[in-house]
Design goal:
2 copies of one chain form a homodimer. By secondary structure, chain A is α/β, with parallel strands linked by helices. In chain A, 34% of the residues lie in helices and 22% in strands. The first copy, chain A, has 15 helices and 14 strands. Chains A and B meet through α3 and α9 of A and α3 and α9 of B.
């Protein structure tokens, strides 16, 4: 009896962790192990992230700041010794922010901190005043009768919390992505949302939204999370103190116009130029409130430093193409332009780093059934960095996502995003949020991926890396 | 030999903790123990902090918002059943903030986040432009020749880090308190400092500074800590890239004028009105960027809830006087007005809560030699709350500080300030930063102090507390 219970307990206590033995992974070539070790100590990635955020600052899509960033990028990529450095220009539907403020007029007058969402309509400089009606979720707004919303300023909250994989962003991002269109359809005067984020600081999270076809653009802004909670308390106190209406004066000035943008491209030519290239990158543009450190100076810095390390070991078999995409934030313009130009050409693999600088904890790949052994080699080579083998039939990426979805091979390195949405799209996305050791683990991971995918590396570099 | 080593190790390992046996403390009356238990579960303090921050919002000294707060306070203190509720008005040297911004013009154009310091001169709405010269500390600025500073925008940094007792604020606050006067004396155009704080968010820490007699007021502002670090990097990169000068456009609009303020006073009359009162309180005014939750809605809420609890147990021997001081932030105006009116009247003790809502960890008192037994009873009564017995010859407090310094008896409860300077004087000083259990430990501590000092409590309350 006692023995039975003990067995039962043992079975129970391990049940949560029960799984099959891990897959047998292939041996990793010593040159790749050596490269990974060198990458963990290499400081180019951290330095690039510092330089981009310091010397360029914010780089909103289509602005002169983004144009200056492209010029800077071309010069820097050439100085780093990459080949074929050039810009592929395109035009975007631009949007820029003007003065913005939100003030509770009655019954408890006070200032709230707000930022317009991308593609918000402008209130004009004199602003608008309306009664606030609150909803706990985007679903609650959807379910409300039009009469509860018409002519009012809609406030929508959500319950997003921190997750390692950032999966809350999809579901709880509804107030930002769908909220403005739903509110407009129901006749709202404007919409203010609880910032899509997980912090408790007075920094609003902006981000793009696109009005659904046929809906009239209305002013749309994001309150900081403390301000959203304050507005909830104000609505609740006003209701308890005799049901007084809460009125808000809202100013969200903005402008929309066509604007120039572009992708910056650089290459490490492979020994066999006829082979499809391996593409890695991130996006150079950023939201306008911060300096775009984790979104996405980190990504371009990580992948560029990884490529630079591979180059310093010798010439790879396949060309490595680095893309610093432009205008990701306002609508994946850079990724879509690249796809339009190059989407029909085969790529050996596509990969992008665009989720901050947290450590990589999982590798996914989608190289196709005949190349699963290559996927397993990636898993084996990344495991020493603490990276869990993930799917062999799936990969992700923002700018490269549409091409992977269209059938091109891809590799995705999942980063720890526990704190990513504390800073994402806020004034707080600044260089001090990047941890050097975490970023260097990312560089080591991407250098490993490139070394595996770009094929055996020639014995000698063509020319020394200039840093 | 082994035994000798063991003894030696034992001696070494306890050396760091070696101290005298703790003092024998007197027994605590059961009524006080019961009050303390009740206070730990009482929610009035937390509710008051919520109501002040929600229904009043920011309450800068001398503004209409502070006047509205006084009216609200009178009504609320009466509703809570306190007696003799009234305002003692006074006039202050007011100062209010207007539009403000800081932009690096060259060589790396970008926007920085700034807030004017109290009593800053105004740049006027068109702002000023100047070359930035950086100093690592207020001491380094002091040591610089006037020629290095004259006509320039001075930037001063510091190395403040988190401490439990907040002691870094005194020493590292030099750039804010002395910096503007020193910079002015040396002929600077303006001064921008690294915010006096310990966070890494883009929320500037304001705070008062006063130009020394004979110095010309100049514009003076605080950059957020990430922005100050960014400016340091910009200065460093510019120096490395050919020694380019860094220029900044600075707009700090502000106004100074005489303005009305006042202290709000309420009492629990003692059974013997001829005895000197026990005074507790906090300050009702707050800086303008946040809602003054930890500075100092928490303090007035904690001490008022504590007094309310004492009252609900019956009438105390001595009168308890609650003061919600006005205009502490711009220069202790409320405390000094109270001292002018009442400083010559004896008080049984003075105490103030004005360091956030972190747990009390130490009790100090300065009741005078003949009343040391009372100080020991305070220590004994507070120990169950995890509070360390501190000095019997020292007490602190902002508004009550000058009166304690002038010889009146005082009690000081030291709060855990580890994170206080993450939020202090920033837009981030909002209700969500208050931890309910921590605040209620404060209420229990102050209720205990009042029960000990106000003397034996009568068996029945005069009238039920209305909450």
């Amino acid at each position: 009896m006692i023995r039975t219970i003990a067995l039962l307990l043992a079975a129970t206590s391990t049940a949560a962790f029960a799984q099959e033995a891990p897959p047998l992974l292939p041996p990793v070539p010593p040159a790749i192990v050596a490269l990974q070790h060198a990458a963990l100590a290499d400081e180019l990635g951290y330095k690039l992230a510092e330089d981009i955020t310091t010397e360029l600052g914010p780089r909103l899509d289509g602005t002169p700041a983004e144009a200056r960033a492209r010029d800077w990028a071309v010069a820097r990529l050439r100085a780093l010794g990459f080949a074929n450095v050039h810009v592929e220009p395109f035009t975007i539907d631009g949007w820029t922010r003007g003065p913005e403020s939100a003030d509770v007029v009655a019954p408890y007058p006070q200032h709230l901190v707000i930022a317009a969402l991308g593609n918000s309509a402008s209130t004009g400089s004199r602003g608008i005043t309306g009664q606030v009606v609150g909803f706990g979720s985007e679903q609650a707004l959807e379910a409300a009768p039009d009469s509860a919303v018409r002519g009012k300023i809609v406030f929508v909250s959500h319950a997003m919390t921190r997750t390692q994989d950032g999966s809350g962003y999809g579901f709880f991002g509804g107030p930002r992505r769908q909220g403005p269109s739903v509110a407009s359809r129901k006749g709202a005067l404007a919409i203010v949302i609880r910032s899509i984020g997980t912090d408790h600081h007075r920094n609003p999270h902006s981000g793009v939204q696109t009005f659904a076809p046929g809906t009239r653009p209305i002013p749309a802004g994001a309150l900081t999370i403390p301000d959203a909670e304050q507005l909830q308390r104000i609505l609740s106190h006003a209701a308890q103190n005799g049901g007084q209406p809460v009125t808000m004066h809202l100013t969200l000035v903005s402008q929309s116009a066509q604007a120039p943008s572009g992708n910056v491209i650089a290459e490490i030519p492979g020994r066999d130029p006829s082979l499809p290239p391996v593409l890695v990158g991130g996006h150079l543009d950023s939201w306008d409130q911060g300096t775009g450190a984790i979104d996405d100076a980190a990504g371009v810095a990580i992948t560029t430093a990884a490529a630079s390390l591979v180059r310093s070991m010798g010439q790879p078999l396949r060309t490595i193409r680095i893309v610093w995409f432009g205008s990701e934030e306002l609508g994946l313009f850079g990724g879509l332009d690249y796809q339009k130009r190059h989407g029909n050409q085969p790529h050996y693999a596509l990969g992008e780093s665009d989720f901050g600088s947290g450590r990589v904890w999982k590798v996914n790949s989608k190289l196709g059934k005949p190349r699963e052994a290559e996927g397993r080699l990636l898993q084996a080579a990344l495991a020493p960095l603490g990276i869990v083998p993930g799917s062999l039939e799936d990969a992700e990426g923002s700018d490269v996502g549409p091409m992977i979805a269209a059938g091109q091979p891809g590799v995705g390195l999942s980063q720890d995003g526990t704190y990513y949405f504390d800073y994402h799209h806020t004034p707080d996305d600044t260089f001090d949020k990047i941890d050097k050791a975490d970023l260097q683990q990312n560089v080591a991971a991407w250098a490993t991926v490139l070394a595996v995918l770009a094929g055996p590396i020639g014995s000698e570099p063509k020319r020394p890396a200039q840093r």
